[in-house]
Amino acid sequence: MGTILAIETSCDETSVAIVKNRQVLSNIVASQIQLHRTYGGVVPELASRQHLETINLCITKALVEADKNWQEIDAIAATCAPGLVGALLVGVTAAKTLAMLYQKPFLGVHHLEGHIYASYLSEPDLQPPFLCLLVSGGHTSIIYVKDCGLYEMLGSTRDDAAGEAFDKVARLLNLGYPGGPIIDKLAQQGNPQAFKLPEGKISLPQGGYHPYDSSFSGLKTAVLRLVQKLELEGDLPVADLAASFQDTVAKVLTKRTIKCALDYGLTKIAIGGGVAANSGLRKQLLTEAQKHNLQVYFPPLKLCTDNAAMIGCAASDHFAHGHTSSLNLGVQSRLEI
Ligand code: KG4
Ligand code: ZN
Questions:
Q1: What global pTM score does this model have?
Q2: Residues that bind Fe cation, according to the entry (predicted)?
Q3: Is the ipTM of this complex over 0.85?
Q4: Is the CATH number of domain 128-298 3.20.20.100?
C-alpha cells in the first residue's frame, strides 16, 4: 500500500485527501451546499464551475495538512463514475494532469466503492464479507462486499434515492434544502404513528414482492396527497408528517437490509451515504440488528457524506493489489459497481 492523493468531485463537494493504507492524513471538503440552496437542489453546471474554482486550493491544503510533498505521493486517484459528468471531469482531469506532471500512477475509483471503503477508515479491522447499505442523495443500494473489487448489488431503488425522497418531501413541506437533516430534527417532535404511509414494495411478475429493492416515489406522492388534503382542512401538522415519513423510510430500509443479511448469512452490516446520519434509521437498524445478533457499523458523519478520504482508501487497496488505470479512462454518469 502507498500514500495516495485522492480527489472527489462527483456531485457538490470538492474534496481532496491524502490517505496511507487505512489512515487519513488529511481530508479537505469544500461543500457547495450554500451555492445550490437557492435552487433547492444541485445545479450541474454550477457544480462543475465551483469545482474548478476550488480544486487547486483543496489540493494544496490537503498536502500541507498531511505535511507531504509530491515526492512522498505514490499514486493519484479520482472518482470517475457515477456522478455528474461535468463535475467528475474536473476531478479526473486534475488527477490525470498531476499524474502526468509528477510521473505517478493514476487510479479511477467508483464512487460507491469509495462509500464502502469509508467503513474501513472508521473500522480498520473490518474484513469482508459484509453487507453495505448505501443511502445518499443519489443512491439506495444494498451491496454484498466480498473482497477488494468484488461486489454484488443485491438491492437498489427503482426511482428516487432515499436522500432524494427526504429532499423532495422537505421541499413540499417548505422546509428548505437539504431536507434530510431538517426532517430528522423536526421528526423528533412529531408522532411517527400519526399517518400510515405506503412502504413502496416492488411487485414481481410471478407474484409477491422483491425482497431487497425499494421505491420511494409512491411514498413521496402519498405525502403530497396528504399535504394537499390537510391544507384544505386548514391544519398541517408538519412534525407528525416528518416523523411518519422518516419512520416509513427507516422501516423500509431496515427490513430490506436485515432480510438481505440473514438470507446471505452475513453477520456484519456497514452503512454509508448522507442518510446514514438519520436518527430514525440508526435506531431501527440497531434495534433490529441486535435482535438477530448482527453487528452494525456506522462511520462518523464526515466519512458517510461525500469525501475524498474514502476514495483514497479504495485506491490504496487497489494500488496494493497492483491495479492502476489508464490515462485514457473516461468519466461516466452511470456505472454498475
Ligand atoms: O452522501 P451525501 O452527502 O451526498 C450524495 O448524495 O452523494 O448525501 C446527501 C443526502 C441528502 O439527500 C440529504 O438530505 C441526506 O443525505 N441527509 C439526510 C440526513 N443528513 C443528510 N437524510 C436523512 N436524515 C439525515 N439526518
Ligand atoms: Zn456519495
A1: 0.94
A2: 111, 115, 306
A3: yes
A4: no
